[in-house]
Amino acid sequence: MSTHLFVLGHTPQLSLAELRSLLPKQELETWSNHLVATSLLKDQQADQLQEILGGVFKILKIVMPLPSAKDEMLSEITQHLKNFKGKILFGLTFFPKSNQLLSAADIKNSLKVIGKKSRYQQTDDWGLSTAILSHEPDALDLFVIENSGQHYLAQTCAYQNLEAWVKRDRKKPYSSGKRGMLPPKLARVLVNLGLGQLDMSPEHQSVLYDPFCGTGTVLIEGLLRGCEVIGSDSDSEAVAGTIKNLYWLEDQLEQKVKYQVFQGDVAHVTKHLWEVKPNLIVTEPFMGKPNPKPSELKNIFTGLRSLYLGAFKAWAQILDSQAVVVIVFPQVRAQNKEYNLLELIDKIAGYGYTLQVEPIDYGYQKSVVKRQILVFKYQK
What we know:
32% of the residues lie in helices and 29% in strands. It has helices at 12-22, 43-52, 70-81, 104-113, 130-135, 162-170, 184-197, 217-224, 236-253, 297-315, 344-349, and strands spanning 2-8, 29-32, 35-40, 56-66, 88-95, 118-120, 140-147, 150-159, 207-210, 228-233, 259-263, 280-283, 324-334, 337-340, 353-362, 369-378. A hairpin with a 2-residue loop joins β13 and β14. It has 2 domains: 2-160, VC0802-like; 166-378, 3-Layer(aba) Sandwich (Rossmann fold). The longest helix is centred in the C-terminal third of the chain and has 19 residues, at 297-315. An 8-stranded mixed β-sheet has the order 2-3-1-4-8-7-5-6. Strands 9, 10, 11, 12, 13, 14, 15 and 16 form an 8-stranded mixed β-sheet that branches.
């Protein structure tokens, strides 16, 4: 068993919730706001997890504990690096930054003394970029991390496949500035949150439904996680575009995938001929104008309450018992007042929905309408 560190994304609370959903029996120790430690059997498990996770962009492996004295620390790192063949390309990052005891020049000079050639590659706050790591597979992405007074040498052993994420974000044939703005990484996190909450045996199929499928982002991430997917949207263009994107996914995978997509209003999904009941809903519904005026917010949220409440009521008639709903609620702060839909939590409890994960705020600083992510369990 080795200690591995997960480097969490820009919303650590959400990334940690995703980790807990996928590793429910694993002890997770928080080292910092962006670092969570756990024990993995082998590096291959880190690769497998990184392939699945949306909210973790690197996984580090603890190489060894380090002494805190500069000269001793330098000696230990040099001894570790001398075992690598050929010219050493490395990055060096200290966490926290204020704890920087060595420089890259110190390591280069120490290696030079023992006859090892090396080249330092500039790092950012979290080491070498994934672009560099993908183009320089022999590069050593090194970290000196302090936790509870002890220093450790760590090294990146898995990282996000940036090219694959960018392709699914920007290369799909259909996109829209009005709908389907959910980033693929966030969609993957939402799917993982839902799958982690499902109580089902391995032989049963996860059937994911997105009633506001937009451009099919959630459906694509669900398919890549092994779900059978169903999508619907009230807009015929969105339905046609989603189907086009799913055809594109089949071309990328070079295999057929199982999906259904139909046009339908969320309040009338009960009229659809359901061959199988979904046990997982993952969706980002309509959240109002992206840049609303403060004077419009009261009416906007009145309409959104009606939309969301009607959706939960309709879903109660089509969901399998013990189903899970992962949903995005809108949130706006304007003129010292917050507008959100959290009051619906108590109202929909009467339909059989119980909150499983406390609402998680997600949004970029410049966004007017921010997201709140909620997870519910449905019981008939």
